[in-house]
């Protein structure tokens, strides 16, 4: 009996096929790892298996019978429970209430609270977590403890299949070891586990089988035994990178930015690098490795506990974002919806947001200058806004929104542009345009620090690649030396030590 | 409150105290007020004054039960004072028109449920923010009431109408109704599926959806229940005096919402108990009465209550910020 099998499932979003026909199954008492880069189709497959979305084609079978999940609730009823990366718990309810909710309510929906506390205590004990008091509100728990509460909830619902999405992404080392033990224990009880993780050392340690997706396509399913991390990376990347991301030639000039021993423990430890005019420095690392934290320090959003920052050879103090802008440092954050764009305002207002001083005519903001600035941004960056500068930023596509954010920072005449995940969530065409734009900007002498979770993007766009892992530098490669294997190995470098110790 | 199982353990008792700190603070404040003011003016403890404090404000406490549920779900209703005024007028008008008394008393409950269920439906399915919707409803109800009654008071009420002036077991009926409803609602919210659903939706909407709770049905249900309590509140209000004024006690909705907040209901949803809200209502009534008995200007009362609201909300926000 196979507790969960999907056959040839596929899913398209508005003409883009996020998942091409893919088959996947998990056996009882097995840990089946699902690997792939961002955008490979992992999350789409998980969403299908957990009942969040319905596939366009293909079939889902539970114990050999074809089923249709109408909702996550429905999937749970069939024994397929998902522990999401962003844990879905009720902070104001107690652990026992979170685990049991109203699952075994009596007549009129009456809930026996003492029985629920007993049940929760027993489930937690099975997870070797008797230290958690079932009557404590979840609000007071750490992320690792919350995760155990979610797993206990899944167990309480008689999960036959447990889907774990990046379960260790935000855990400290000690908690990872504990989680690994719990997952092995669940396997011993006959639960089938779908394990999604970027941390390949963990996958090697835990998985019985490995399935790799790439570009929305099924690549292979293999026995994990005998596979090395390099084998996994090769399957995940598996293509010629230089063909896809032509950075173009640019003349690399003098040093613009130098960072020496930048530290803000625990996420940033002793980071040093230089960035030259006309250069793209790729900052690679796993999610949570400390990449965004480095950017935040450079932009003055956080203050380093030690380390020095030099601009044009002079030491500077980046005490606030305002100071950073004045120094010529611009930062396009990862979450452009929340941090980069005012969606309810037009393109022109967004583009001029960081350089309002340029619009002043006496005490007044000049509407005509604002409009002209919007029109110029649209022309220069090729923003597709049918209504011109008055087009609301929120109504643009993801790629065009990103261009608006970049245009906003270009108006501050920066020397250094930090781009955090510049092409996350934009479609393929816009991605190529943003890459071309980055090439143009370097030819104009701008220095770019690019953070990206997509290895091909890092390798294809960067003149040099800096790799961080758990807050430390684990590699600095010239373009010619930056092979997927080397960079990939550096990305998981310290992780191995952590799991080994 | 009723949620604490009876097993002896110091940790359990300690946690119970911490978990319901605000309720205990309010309770302590009421007792302290009673003791303090009775020294200044012994008549404060006279049966007549106690009846005014407890029984005369029972209708507010009853309305606060429904409001508590609405706020815990993550919504707000600023129209409930106007609704109570309308429903009281409906009851009075029907009584004057000679309808059977049981129908007179039942009509406000039915209409209250209907009006608020409709409001809840618009909030849940038409995605109108509850504050906007109930602001609109407030204007409609208040304006409509003045237009229909012409601002006149209802005075010639039949003698059988005055339900709130009756006694049960030797106690004023409003006091008994308030106590029974508060305890029943507290028990229901702690020990039944729908009660838990209310907390779940207010605590984490997305998580509630993910485990298959119908957020929409919960919203409509909570608003309908809130309408029921508003109806009961209106009957108590209408039948306690010999006249029904067409102007509701001004700012009644604010008093009710404030009672919830000071009673420990989080304005951000997910947290609170009806017992806290009921106690806070009594607390207000006690302060008001105490100020009269100690000759303090009524204007100070508003300032004191305003200060209490700010402190409570600040504490709530600080607590939320402290969570991971």
Polypeptide structure, described:
The complex is a heterodimer of chains A (501) and B (324). In chain A, helix 4 (113-126) packs across helix 5 and helix 8 packs across helix 18 (484-491). Chain A starts with a strand and ends with a helix. With 501 residues, chain A is an alpha/beta fold. The longest helix of chain A has 16 residues, at 173-188. The model of chain A has no long low-confidence stretch (mean pLDDT 86). In chain A, strands 6-7-8-3-9-10 form a six-stranded mixed beta sheet, with helices on both faces. Chain A has two domains: 4-240, Rossmann fold (3-Layer(aba) Sandwich); 242-500, P-loop containing nucleotide triphosphate hydrolases (Rossmann fold), CATH 3.40.50. Chain B has a single domain, classed as ABC transporter involved in vitamin B12 uptake, BtuC, CATH 1.10.3470. The two termini of chain B are 25 Å apart. In chain B, helix 8 crosses helix 9 (193-203). Chain B is mostly helical. The interface between A and B is medium-sized, with 32 and 29 residues.
Number of domains of chain A: 2
User: Which stretches of chain B of 5+ consecutive residues score pLDDT under 50?
Assistant: 1-19
CATH class of chain B: Mainly Alpha
Strand line-up of the largest beta sheet of chain A: 6-7-8-3-9-10
Q: Helical residue percent of chain B?
A: over 70%
Number of helices of chain A: 19
Give the chain pair forming the largest contact, with residue counts: A-B, 32 and 29 residues
Tell how many strands the DSSP assignment of chain B holds: 2
Unreliable parts of chain A = none
| Main beta-sheet strand count, sense and barrel state of chain A | 6 strands, mixed
Q: Name the CATH class of the largest domain in chain A.
A: Alpha Beta
The level of helicity of chain A is 25-40%
What's the CATH topology name of the largest domain in chain A? Rossmann fold
Task: State the shape of chain A.
Answer: globular
CATH domain fold name of chain B: ABC transporter involved in vitamin B12 uptake, BtuC
Query: Oligomeric state of the chains?
Result: heterodimer
Average pLDDT number of chain A = 86
What is the molecular shape of chain B? globular
């Amino acid at each position: 009996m196979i507790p969960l099998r999907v056959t040839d499932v596929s899913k398209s979003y508005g003409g883009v096929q996020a998942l091409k026909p893919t088959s996947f199954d998990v056996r009882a008492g097995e840990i089946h790892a699902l690997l792939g880069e961002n955008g490979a189709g992992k999350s789409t497959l998980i969403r299908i298996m957990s009942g969040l979305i319905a596939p366009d084609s293909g079939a889902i079978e539970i114990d050999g019978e074809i089923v249709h999940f109408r909702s996550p609730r429905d999937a749970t009823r069939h024994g397929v429970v998902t522990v999401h990366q962003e844990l879905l718990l009720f902070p104001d309810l107690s652990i026992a209430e979170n685990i049991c909710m109203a699952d075994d309510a009596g007549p009129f929906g009456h809930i026996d609270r003492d029985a629920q506390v007993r049940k929760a205590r027993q489930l937690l004990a099975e997870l070797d977590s008797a230290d958690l008091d079932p009557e404590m509100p979840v609000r007071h728990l750490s992320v690792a403890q919350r995760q155990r509460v979610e797993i206990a909830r899944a167990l309480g619902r008689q999960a036959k299949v447990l889907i774990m999405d990046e379960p260790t992404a935000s855990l400290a080392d000690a908690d990872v070891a504990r989680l690994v033990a719990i997952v092995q224990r669940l396997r011993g009880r006959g639960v089938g586990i779908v394990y999604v993780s970027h941390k390949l050392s963990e996958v090697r340690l835990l998985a019985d089988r490995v399935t790799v997706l790439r570009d929305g396509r099924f690549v292979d399913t293999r026995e994990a035994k005998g596979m090395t991390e390099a084998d996994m990376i090769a399957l995940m990347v598996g293509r010629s990178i230089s063909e896809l991301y032509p950075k173009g030639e640019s003349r690399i000039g003098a040093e613009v930015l130098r960072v020496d021993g930048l530290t803000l423990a625990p996420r940033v430890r002793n980071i040093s690098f230089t960035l030259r005019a006309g250069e793209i420095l790729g900052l690679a690392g796993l999610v949570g490795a400390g990449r965004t934290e480095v950017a935040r320090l450079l932009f003055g959003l956080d203050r380093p506990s030690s380390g020095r920052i030099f601009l044009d050879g002079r030491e500077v103090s980046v005490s606030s974002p305002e100071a950073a802008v004045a120094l010529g440092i611009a930062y396009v954050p990862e979450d452009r919806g929340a941090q980069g764009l005012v969606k309810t305002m037009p393109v022109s207002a967004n583009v001029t947001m960081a350089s309002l001083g340029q619009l002043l005519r006496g005490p007044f903001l000049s509407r005509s200058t604002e409009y002209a600035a919007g029109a110029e941004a649209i022309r220069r960056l090729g923003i597709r806004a049918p209504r011109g500068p008055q087009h609301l930023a929120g109504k643009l596509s993801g790629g065009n929104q990103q261009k608006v954010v970049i245009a906003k920072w270009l108006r501050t005449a920066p020397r250094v542009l930090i781009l955090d995940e510049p092409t996350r969530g934009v479609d393929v065409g816009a991605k190529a345009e943003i890459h071309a734009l980055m090439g143009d900007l370097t030819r104009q002498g701008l220095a770019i620090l690019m953070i990206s979770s997509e290895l091909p993007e890092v390798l294809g766009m960067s003149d040099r690649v800096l790799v961080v892992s758990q807050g430390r530098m684990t590699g600095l490669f010239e373009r010619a030396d930056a092979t997927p294997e080397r960079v990939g190995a550096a990305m998981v470098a310290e992780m191995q030590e952590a799991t080994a110790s | 409150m009723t949620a604490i199982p009876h097993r002896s353990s110091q940790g359990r008792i300690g946690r119970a105290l911490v978990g319901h700190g605000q309720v205990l603070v309010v309770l302590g404040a009421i007792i302290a007020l009673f003791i303090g003011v009775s020294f200044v003016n012994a008549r404060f403890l006279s049966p007549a004054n106690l009846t005014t404090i407890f029984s005369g404000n029972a209708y507010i406490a009853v309305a606060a039960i429904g409001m508590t549920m609405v706020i815990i779900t993550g919504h707000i209703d600023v129209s409930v004072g106007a609704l109570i005024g309308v429903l009281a007028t409906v009851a009075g008008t029907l009584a004057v028109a000679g309808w059977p008394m049981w129908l007179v008393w039942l009509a406000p409950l039915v209409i209250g449920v209907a009006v608020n269920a409709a409001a809840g439906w618009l909030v849940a399915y038409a995605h109108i923010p509850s504050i906007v919707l109930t602001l609109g409803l407030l204007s409609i109800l208040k304006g409509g009431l003045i237009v229909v009654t012409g601002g006149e008071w209802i005075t010639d009420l039949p003698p059988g109408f005055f339900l709130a002036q009756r006694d049960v077991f030797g106690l004023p009926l409003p006091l008994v109704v308030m106590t029974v409803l508060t305890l029943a609602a507290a028990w229901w919210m702690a020990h039944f599926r729908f009660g838990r659903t209310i907390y779940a939706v207010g605590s984490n909407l997305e998580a509630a959806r993910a485990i298959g709770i119908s957020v929409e049905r919960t919203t409509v249900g909570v608003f309908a229940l809130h309408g029921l309590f508003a109806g009961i509140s209106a009957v108590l209000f209408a039948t306690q005096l010999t006249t029904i004024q067409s102007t509701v006690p001004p700012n009644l909705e604010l008093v009710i919402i404030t009672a919830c907040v000071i009673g420990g209901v989080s304005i951000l949803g997910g947290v609170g108990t009806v017992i806290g809200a009921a106690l806070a209502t009594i607390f207000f009534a006690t302060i008001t009465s105490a100020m009269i008995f100690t000759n303090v200007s009524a204007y100070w009362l508003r300032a004191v209550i305003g200060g209490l609201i700010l402190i409570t909300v600040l504490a709530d926000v600080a607590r939320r910020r402290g969570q991971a």
